[in-house]
């Protein structure tokens, strides 16, 4: 059974990404497009368009164009959008990097993506310099100034228009662990991103008199597309934050009369329960939209009642640009991730057989539509596992659809851990733990956590005669990965449950954790 959206299909513009995002820039030239929340520094739509054209001109003058990759390693700021769309206008490709990554993790992405330039901020310059050794990166630029790097302002040249691109050209490569395994470059084209912006419009209903809070990072597909690109394409003013601090977040939302909150469940939890919220006026809020991880119906209702607006969910993946499901304004159903967006198809299938299931029957969610990536960079095997011959993307998430066309996610077939909305691949952490001289075997699973959603827990088998503490192993992992990937719990055991083929049976460990929680 192939499900379609209850909403009418939309026309998908035949347009490069930046031209679509800046389509209202001339009319709204004097309106603030992006405001730096902590300082109040702003770029109007006219200034943003001009800066993008100048950066594109500077890049092209340096011989940068189609086939070239620029990496951005930075927190949210107005200049992030300038760099991102300057590259897109020049015909190149952006790869966005989590600024909390270690030099080791950054180097892997730079090397895999084939990045030619790297843009960062002074705070992360030392890490960036360590990471580029042995990669193809020719030059590091910084927003602002720092010794040992070129100011980003040096990239500003004579303004140019959009350089020739095809709809199928890759414009951005965020990295994702996909349904399993280590991070892979997700190749998203101009057509993918423009299509998803068009698909999201009738569901999200963003208006040009809205003000959005951009606390979610632009390096992540949610912040990149729904906020940076989607809000600007609608003529909305965005207020950026480089990092989340609850008190500063509340103050910025109050001072800027924020109407649209695009958040993840840990921040929704704070809105529902933290006493600081009572000291701020959030009455301008029209909607809180939560994504990147599951949000309970109870928490959504509690947060909504407290700040006086509906709190709804959406769903998507980096591989789907990202939105596949969202809740239309006024269409809230408790626990639902919303309805299928226009121009998309969805199936709910029995995971083992691929047989379609009926309404209210739980199965794996499959997606097909113009927002589905062109594939994983340098990894045709992983691409073939994720997207079948008929174009269906297998999400690895288990859920169902009801009689009203609303979808619900109930579990994950895939093994990823979702820590505060970020993906953590168990295989990556297991590989690191196995490099410790005392570790014989290991399995990493998610454990529910009220604040983070899930935290990584390691079951560890020590080698005979070897000794190590939980703290030893946590420190070993912490030296190689970003903070959000770190092991939070360690349990020592005699053996790791495995199948006859040697595959870790994480399900048995998860069941054990559930039983313990129930007994507690």
Structural topology:
Layout: E1 3-4, H1 17-21, E2 32-36, E3 42-44, H2 45-61, E4 69-73, H3 78-89, E5 93-96, H4 103-113, E6 117-120, H5 125-131, E7 139-142, E8 150-151, E9 170-172, E10 175-176, E11 184-189, H6 190-204, E12 211-214, H7 221-233, E13 237-240, H8 246-255, E14 260-263, H9 265-273, E15 287-290, H10 297-307, E16 310-316, E17 323-326, E18 338-340, E19 345-349, E20 363-368, E21 375-376, H11 380-386, E22 393-401, E23 406-412, E24 417-419, E25 422-424, H12 426-433, E26 439-449, E27 453-462, H13 470-478, E28 489-492, H14 506-519
What do you see in this structure?
It is built from 14 helices and 28 strands. The protein has 520 residues and is an alpha/beta fold. The strands form 5 sheets. It has a 14-stranded mixed sheet. Strands 5-4-6-7-8 form a 5-stranded parallel sheet, sandwiched between helices. Strands 9, 10, 11 and 21 form a 4-stranded antiparallel sheet that branches. β12 (211-214), α7 (221-233) and β13 (237-240) form a beta-alpha-beta unit. The mean pLDDT is 94.
The amount of helix comes to 25-40%
Percentage of β-strand residues: 25-35%
Q: Describe the biggest sheet?
A: 14 strands, mixed
> Average pLDDT value?
94
- Residue windows where pLDDT falls under 50 for at least 5 positions: none
End-to-end Cα distance: 42 Å
**How many helices?**
14
As a whole number of angstroms, the C-alpha radius of gyration is: 23 Å
Number of strands: 28
Strand order across the largest sheet:
1-19-20-22-23-18-17-16-15-14-12-13-2-3
Shape: globular
Q: By helix and strand content, what is the structural category?
A: alpha/beta
